[in-house]
Write a structure and sequence with these properties.
This protein is 29% helix and 26% strand. By secondary structure, the protein is α/β, with parallel strands linked by helices. It folds into two domains: 297 residues, ANL, N-terminal domain (Rossmann fold); 122 residues, ANL, C-terminal domain (GMP Synthetase, Chain A, domain 3, 2-Layer Sandwich). The strands form five sheets. The protein has a 13-stranded mixed β-sheet, sandwiched between helices.
Length: 495
C-alpha cells in the first residue's frame, strides 16, 4: 500500500490531482499495467500533462468523447488528460451501433457548444460522463463532478481499510463505471492498478497469484468463471488476495464457499449502488443471509423508504449522500417518459429500486420498480424469483418475465439457461417444486423456456429487455404458426 495522500489537502477533491504527488514521491512505482505495457507514476504523469497541454492548445471542446477503439491503457491516459485539462471525459461503449454512436456524438457536441470558455476547475466541476441504458434503448449520459468520486474513494478506504488502498486488479472495460472507478482508485491512492482489454479468467488468476494486486474489483459473472476454471484445472488456493469487492449484479451467495476456498485470505464484500449514486450499502458475503439483504448503509449515506405499500414495508428507496451524480447529459431526460431515469427530490435521489429496512438496520432490495409484475392481484419482483431459480444446481441464469393473461393479469414465465456442469435431466416440474419450497405459490412460474445463447449487456448483466423481445417473438410465432417448428429456435420449452 502506498503512503496515504493527505486527505485534508483540498487538491484531493480533484480526481486526477494526486497523480502529480505520486509522480514526485514514488515515480518509479507502476501506476498502470495491462500485461503487455506498463507506465510508472512518473511516466503516466508526463503522458497526461503532455496530452492535457495539447488539448488546451487545440481549444478542445468542454466535453471530449474518449476513443473507445484504443487500448484500455491508452483510454485511461486520455481520460486523465482530459480531466486534467479542466474538461469532462465521456466514455463511449464499444458495443454501440453506428446510429447510437452518432446520436451520442451529436448530444455531446450540443453540450460542449453551450460553453464558450472553460470555467475555473472546481471540485464540483463535471469530470466524467458515463452511459446507462434507458427504456427506449437509447443510452442516457450521467454526469459526475470530481467530489462525488473523491468522496467515494475516501469512503471506500475508510470502510474497507488499507487493502482498498493497495494494488488493484480491475479487469473490465473503462466504459463500465465500476471498473473505471477501480482504475482511478488505484491511481488516486498511489497503489497502482492492473487492467485487461478483455477479461480473461486465467490471466486474472495469474495476476492475483503474483501478489501485486491484493484487491480485486469484479462483477459476479467474472468470479463464477474464475471459480469454475480453478475447479477444472485444480488450481491451488491464492493466498495473496486480501479483498474482493463485488458489485454490478447480485452475487450468487450459494457459491461464496467456493470463492472463499479459492481466495482463503480474502475479505469478500458485496456492495450495492448505482451509476447515479455510487455506494449505498454493503455487507460481508454471507451464504446464510436472505437473498434480498444488501447490507447496511455506507458512512455518510442516508436512506429513506417512501410510498411503502407492500406487506413487507417495501417502497421506493431514496438516498442522500455526497456521492450522488449531477444530472443526465443535457439535463433533458424526461423522468416521466423514461421509467429507468432517476428521480430527484431536493438532496434526495431514487434510481427506482424498491426495498425496505429490516429490524437489524439492513437494506433489503425487492427489485426495480419498472420490472415489477402484477399477477393474481399481487406484486412480484422478478429479482426475488431469479435469485431462487439460480440457486438450483441445474440453472446457470434466469430471467423472469410477465406475459399478458386474461385470468391472472400477468402470467409468470421463466427464461433460463441450463448449467452445462449439471448432468441430471431437468424437468419443469422439478424447478416448480424447488420454487414452491422457497416461495409463495403465486410466485412460481407457470412456464419455463430455455435460452442457450444468453444475451448480456455491455456490463455483463443479463439483458432482460432482449429476452423479453425474444419471448414475445416466440409467442407470436407460436400463435401465427402453431404447427411450424423453428429450425434454430431462440427459445424452447423445458418439458
Amino acid at each position: 500500500m502506498a503512503e496515504h495522500f493527505n486527505n485534508s489537502n483540498p487538491l484531493t477533491d480533484l480526481v486526477h490531482a494526486p497523480l502529480a504527488h505520486w509522480a514526485s514521491v514514488r515515480g518509479d512505482a507502476v501506476a498502470i499495467s495491462d500485461g503487455s505495457r506498463c507506465l510508472t507514476f512518473a511516466e503516466l504523469n508526463a503522458a497526461v500533462q503532455q496530452r492535457s497541454a495539447a488539448l488546451t492548445q487545440a481549444q478542445a471542446p468542454a466535453t471530449v468523447l474518449v476513443d473507445d477503439s484504443a487500448t484500455s491503457l491508452h483510454q485511461l491516459v486520455e481520460f486523465l488528460a482530459v480531466i486534467s485539462s479542466g474538461r469532462c471525459a465521456a466514455m463511449a461503449d464499444p458495443d454501440w451501433p453506428a446510429a447510437v454512436r452518432q446520436t451520442m456524438r451529436e448530444q455531446i457536441g450540443q453540450l460542449s457548444t453551450t460553453l464558450s470558455t472553460l470555467p475555473e476547475l472546481q471540485p464540483t466541476s463535471p469530470f466524467y460522463i458515463g452511459f446507462t441504458s434507458g427504456s427506449t434503448g437509447m443510452p442516457k449520459g450521467f454526469r459526475r463532478h470530481h467530489r462525488s468520486w473523491t468522496e467515494s474513494f475516501r469512503i471506500c478506504v475508510e470502510t474497507f481499510g488499507p487493502d482498498a488502498a493497495s494494488g488493484i486488479l480491475s479487469p473490465g472495460r473503462s466504459s463500465h463505471s465500476l471498473f473505471l472507478f477501480g482504475m482511478l482508485l488505484g491511481v488516486w491512492t498511489g497503489a497502482g492498478v492492473v487492467i485487461q482489454d478483455k477479461f480473461s479468467a486465467s490471466r486474472a488468476l495469474d495476476i492475483l497469484r503474483q501478489g501485486h494486486t491484493p484487491c480485486l474489483i469484479a462483477v459476479p459473472s467474472q468470479l463464477i468463471v474464475m471459480i469454475e476454471l480453478a475447479a477444472r484445472q485444480a488450481i491451488a488456493p491464492i493466498e495473496a488476495t486480501r479483498l474482493i469487492m463485488i458489485s454490478g449484479a447480485r452475487w450468487a451467495r450459494h457459491r461464496t464457499a467456493e470463492l472463499q476456498a479459492l481466495f482463503p485470505q480474502a475479505r469478500i464484500i458485496e456492495f450495492y449502488g448505482a451509476s447515479e449514486t455510487s455506494f449505498i450499502a454493503w455487507m460481508e458475503a454471507d451464504v446464510s443471509a436472505p437473498p434480498q439483504v444488501v447490507g447496511r448503509p455506507f458512512g455518510h449515506v442516508e436512506i429513506d423508504i417512501r410510498d411503502a405499500s407492500a406487506p413487507d414495508g417495501s417502497g421506493l428507496i431514496f438516498v442522500r449522500s455526497p456521492m450522488l451524480f449531477m444530472d443526465y447529459m443535457g439535463a433533458k431526460t424526461n423522468v416521466m417518459a423514461d421509467a429507468t431515469a432517476a428521480i430527484r427530490d431536493g438532496d434526495w435521489l431514487s434510481v427506482r429500486d424498491m426495498g425496505h429496512m429490516d429490524a437489524q438496520g439492513r437494506l433489503c432490495l425487492a427489485g426495480r420498480q419498472n420490472r415489477m409484475i402484477t399477477t393474481q392481484g399481487k406484486n412480484l419482483f422478478p429479482e426475488e424469483l431469479e435469485s431462487v431459480l439460480t440457486t438450483h444446481p441445474g440453472i446457470a441464469k434466469a430471467s423472469v418475465q410477465g406475459v399478458a393473461d386474461t385470468l391472472r393479469g400477468m402470467k409468470v414465465v421463466a427464461v433460463v439457461q441450463l448449467d452445462s456442469a449439471c448432468t441430471d435431466e431437468l424437468h419443469a416440474a422439478d424447478i416448480s417444486a424447488w420454487c414452491r419450497a422457497k416461495l409463495e405459490a403465486y410466485k412460481v412460474p407457470k412456464r419455463y423456456l430455455v435460452c442457450d445463447n444468453w444475451p448480456l449487456t455491455a456490463s455483463g448483466k443479463t439483458d432482460h429487455p432482449a429476452l423479453a423481445l425474444r419471448l414475445q417473438n416466440h409467442l407470436d410465432d407460436k400463435l401465427s404458426k402453431p404447427n411450424t417448428p423453428c429450425p434454430v429456435p431462440c427459445l424452447y420449452p423445458l418439458l
